[in-house]
TrEMBL record:
GO molecular function per UniProt: aspartate 1-decarboxylase activity
Species this protein is from: Reinekea thalattae
Record PTM: Is synthesized initially as an inactive proenzyme, which is activated by self-cleavage at a specific serine bond to produce a beta-subunit with a hydroxyl group at its C-terminus and an alpha-subunit with a pyruvoyl group at its N-terminus.
List of residues binding substrate: 57, 73-75
Catalytic activity: L-aspartate + H(+) = beta-alanine + CO2
Active site: 25, 58
Record pathway: Cofactor biosynthesis; (R)-pantothenate biosynthesis; beta-alanine from L-aspartate: step 1/1
Protein name per its UniProtKB record: Aspartate 1-decarboxylase
InterPro entries reported for this sequence: Asp_de-COase-like_dom_sf, Asp_decarbox
Keywords: Autocatalytic cleavage, Cytoplasm, Decarboxylase, Lyase, Pantothenate biosynthesis, Pyruvate, Schiff base, Zymogen
Assembly with partners or alone: Heterooctamer of four alpha and four beta subunits.
Role played: Catalyzes the pyruvoyl-dependent decarboxylation of aspartate to produce beta-alanine.
Length: 127
């Protein structure tokens, strides 16, 4: 049996930009994508802690080390600059693959730097 499991999460990322006229997506600093194991164009779920909105889009790679979280296109109507988001990526796993599996979680500070991590990210990777 295949199961859909949480693969990666950016917890309490802060929106830095919104661009409603863009064709769509959520642009995320490349270093955050790499640490979380989220691929460019991968589907993501976004949960807005500031207003309760929940929506699906895809990840776009933005400049490294800038802490950018830009909600674009129609999704920009569901978030505003400074909103806090939970950004999640899910994946299909077989029953065998989930044994011992833990999702990668990046806990974000207010400036979108990483305050701490859980599970798959080695601590030296965020130094």
């Amino acid at each position: 049996m295949d199961l859909i499991m949480l693969k990666a999460k950016l917890h309490k990322a802060r929106v830095t930009h919104t661009m409603p006229d863009y064709e769509g997506s959520c642009a995320i600093s490349g270093d955050l994508l790499d640490l979380a194991g989220i691929h460019e164009y991968e589907q993501i779920q976004i949960y807005n802690l500031s207003n309760g909105e929940r929506f699906t889009t895809y990840a776009m790679r933005e400049k490294e080390g800038e802490g950018i979280i830009s909600v674009n296109g129609a999704a920009a109507l569901k978030a505003k600059v400074s909103d806090r988001l939970i950004i999640c990526a899910y994946a299909n796993f077989s029953s065998e693959e989930i044994e011992g599996f833990k999702p990668c979680t990046l806990y974000m500070s207010s400036d979108n730097s990483i305050s701490h991590t859980a599970n798959a990210v080695p601590e030296q990777a965020i130094s």
